[in-house]
């Protein structure tokens, strides 16, 4: 068995992509974000890692939920999952190359800023429309920490740890634990305040629209160099 493991590789050495420098500005809380490259062709990617060692069981389950949703939902403006693995000690996956929303905002030129942000909002609300109307789910974790930007300026939704049907009690039970492992400063009051009856009674788009507004405010604050 040990010989077989050596032949197949274990852990990071067995992954089809490399895990490079960490992006310390990423504020996702549950996962860490890294630079990376695909081993097959050298394509640059973004890599998200979650370390299971010493993590609470509910954190491990939340990370697995995010990982599974990242590969399940496909849309031009949802962060494009490429490949990944859920291993004994780590959950890791790679996506198209992106950078965190607020890092992107820092580099905007004032002359084109509003046009670029307007396009980003178009991307964001198209992805949310897909989730709300076609998939019948709420993202529930929309904020600057869960929006990423490609080199071409497209905004992409990631951070799928809270995604699900907020009218379903099974999903509410997941949220009760999972909300402890995501940044809550930009989340809707029903989620940040753990008011689950109010969330179940709200339209599925409501918490995501709140989060989008908070993300937009954060983008303009970063452009102005304020918090």
From TrEMBL:
<dbReference type="GO" id="GO:0004672">
    <property type="term" value="F:protein kinase activity"/>
</dbReference>
<dbReference type="InterPro" id="IPR000719">
    <property type="entry name" value="Prot_kinase_dom"/>
</dbReference>
<feature type="domain" description="Protein kinase">
    <location>
        <begin position="2"/>
        <end position="227"/>
    </location>
</feature>
<dbReference type="InterPro" id="IPR011009">
    <property type="entry name" value="Kinase-like_dom_sf"/>
</dbReference>
<dbReference type="InterPro" id="IPR051177">
    <property type="entry name" value="CIK-Related_Protein"/>
</dbReference>
<dbReference type="GO" id="GO:0005524">
    <property type="term" value="F:ATP binding"/>
</dbReference>
<protein>
    <recommendedName>
        <fullName>Protein kinase domain-containing protein</fullName>
    </recommendedName>
</protein>
């Amino acid at each position: 068995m040990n010989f077989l493991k050596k032949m197949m590789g274990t852990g990071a050495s067995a992954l089809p992509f490399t895990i490079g420098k960490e992006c310390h500005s990423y504020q996702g809380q549950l996962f860490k974000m890294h630079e990376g490259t695909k081993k097959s062709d050298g394509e640059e990617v973004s890599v998200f890692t979650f370390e299971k060692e010493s993590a609470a069981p509910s954190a491990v389950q939340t990370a697995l939920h995010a990982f599974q949703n990242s590969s399940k939902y496909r849309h031009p403006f949802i962060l494009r999952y490429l490949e990944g693995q859920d291993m004994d000690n780590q959950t890791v996956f790679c996506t198209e190359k992106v950078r965190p929303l607020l890092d992107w905002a820092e580099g905007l030129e004032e002359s084109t800023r509003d046009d670029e942000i307007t396009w980003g909002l178009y991307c964001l609300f198209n992805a949310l429309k897909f989730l709300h109307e076609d998939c019948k789910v709420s993202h529930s974790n929309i904020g600057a920490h869960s929006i990423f930007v490609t080199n071409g300026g497209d905004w992409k939704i990631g951070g799928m740890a809270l995604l699900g049907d907020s009218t379903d009690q099974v999903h509410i039970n997941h949220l009760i634990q999972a909300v402890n492992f995501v940044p809550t400063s930009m989340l809707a009051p029903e989620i940040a305040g753990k008011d689950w009856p109010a969330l179940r009674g709200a339209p599925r788009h409501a918490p995501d629209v709140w989060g989008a507004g908070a993300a937009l405010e954060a983008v303009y604050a970063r452009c102005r160099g304020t918090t």
